[in-house]
C-alpha cells in the first residue's frame, strides 16, 4: 500500500492511498481459500470447487467487502502512523466511474482513494501559575432568606370562596374564549383557569377588567396583545375574550410556621428556611462560578493564539448563527432594529466561533494531560437530569442517546469542561472578594463589550453562551394559555 501526501497547507491535509491490483487479488484469493470448504455449489463436492469458479461466483462481492473494510479501517491506521489527529471525520473520495470500479472489483486495476482532513493543531501547554482571578462572594442575610420564604408562603397561600365582587389580590376561577375579528384563535380557550388579580400573569389590561366581577358574571374583555408577543399571528392584535366567572376567592393570611412547612412536605419552618437558604446559595454560587470561569477563559484566550480547524469553526458558527436567527424570528426584530447589519453580525459571530473552538482545544489538551475523565456515574446522573426535564418522554430520550453517537458526547463535553476548570482552580491564584448581591448579578461584559464590538442585542444571548462556554439547556415546552405573557415573564411565578 502506498500512502502519498498530496497536500499540506496549514492544517489541511490530503492523502492519496494506492493499493496495487496484485495485492488486492492476493487478499481476495485468501478470502476465497477461507470459504472454499464452506460453500455449497451444485455439481461440486464440498471443498472441491475450482478456485476459478469460486472467483467467478464470489469474486466481486469479496472484493467489494475488501474495499469497504479498507476504507473503514485504513484512515484511522494512516493517521495513527502519521501521528496526526483529524479535527473531524476525514472525507474519503473514490472513483465514481463505473467502468473503473468494475476493473477494481476484478483485480485488474489498482484501488485508489484520497483522504481529505484538517489536523488538530499541536498545543504546547503553558504554566498557569501566574494566572490570577477574583472570586466574588455574597454573604446571605437572614432578611433575604425571610423575604424568599415569604414568597414561598404567598405562592402556597390558600383561598376561600367569598361572596361579592372580586378585588385586587383575589383569585378568580373562570372559563374564557379568545377571539380576533370574531374568530376564536388556537390556544385562546380555557376552562377552570385560575388567576390572582394583580399578579400580572396575563397580558396588560386583562386582569384590571375583572376587578369588580362576581361569580356568575359574564364579561367581554377587550385587550391588545403586546407588539413583541411570541405568537406572531397575535402580536399587536386587538382581541376579545368572552369570560365567565365561576368563582371568586379571597386570600387567607400568610403565616410562616411549622404548619406551612408541613403543607410543603417539610417537617418544620426552620427546615424550610434552611432549604431556601441553600437554594439562594446555589443560585449565587452558580453566578460566582460563571464569572470565575469567564475570567479563566479570558486569560487562556490571551495566552493561546493558533490557527483553528476551519471545519470546527464552521460547525460552531452554524450552531450560534442558527440560535441567533431563531431569537430574531421569535422577537420579530431585524439586525437593523439593533443598529447593526447582518454582515457585521456574521463577522462578529465568526470571531466568537473561533474563540470557542480554540478554547475548547486548549481545555481538551489541559484535561488530557491532567488525566481528567468523566465517569460512567457522572454520565448517568447527567442523562437522568435530562430525563427529569421531560416527564413522560423518558423512553424517547433514552432511545435517542442510544441511537445517536454524538448525543452522549454532547452530555460528556460540558462535564469534562467543568472538571478541567476545577483542575485549573487548584493551580491558579484565586482571591475571594465580598460583594453585594447587586454587584454579583451585574453584567460583567457591559461597557467593555460595547466598546469592543458594539454587539447587537439579540447577539448577547449567544455571545454570553459562546464566550462563557456554558452547556446549553433544552427549551422548555411552550405554555398553552394565549392571554398570558411570554414565558420569560412568567418564570418567577
Automatic annotation (TrEMBL):
Protein species of origin: Rhizobium grahamii
| EC id | 5.2.1.8
A GO cellular-component term linked to this record: cytoplasm
Which Gene Ontology biological process is one annotated for this entry?
protein unfolding
What is the catalytic activity of this protein? [protein]-peptidylproline (omega=180) = [protein]-peptidylproline (omega=0)
Q: Where is the PPIase FKBP-type domain?
A: 169-270
Recorded GO terms, molecular function?
peptidyl-prolyl cis-trans isomerase activity; protein folding chaperone; ribosome binding
Q: Where in the cell is it found?
A: Cytoplasm
The domain comment in this protein's record states: Consists of 3 domains; the N-terminus binds the ribosome, the middle domain has PPIase activity, while the C-terminus has intrinsic chaperone activity on its own.
Please name the Gene3D superfamilies in this protein's record. 3.10.50.40, Trigger factor ribosome-binding domain (3.30.70.1050), Trigger factor, C-terminal domain (1.10.3120.10)
Q: Which PROSITE patterns has this protein been placed in?
A: FKBP_PPIASE
Mind giving the lineage of the organism this protein is from?
A: Bacteria, Pseudomonadati, Pseudomonadota, Alphaproteobacteria, Hyphomicrobiales
Indicate what this protein is called per its UniProt record. Trigger factor
- Protein task: Involved in protein export. Acts as a chaperone by maintaining the newly synthesized protein in an open conformation. Functions as a peptidyl-prolyl cis-trans isomerase.
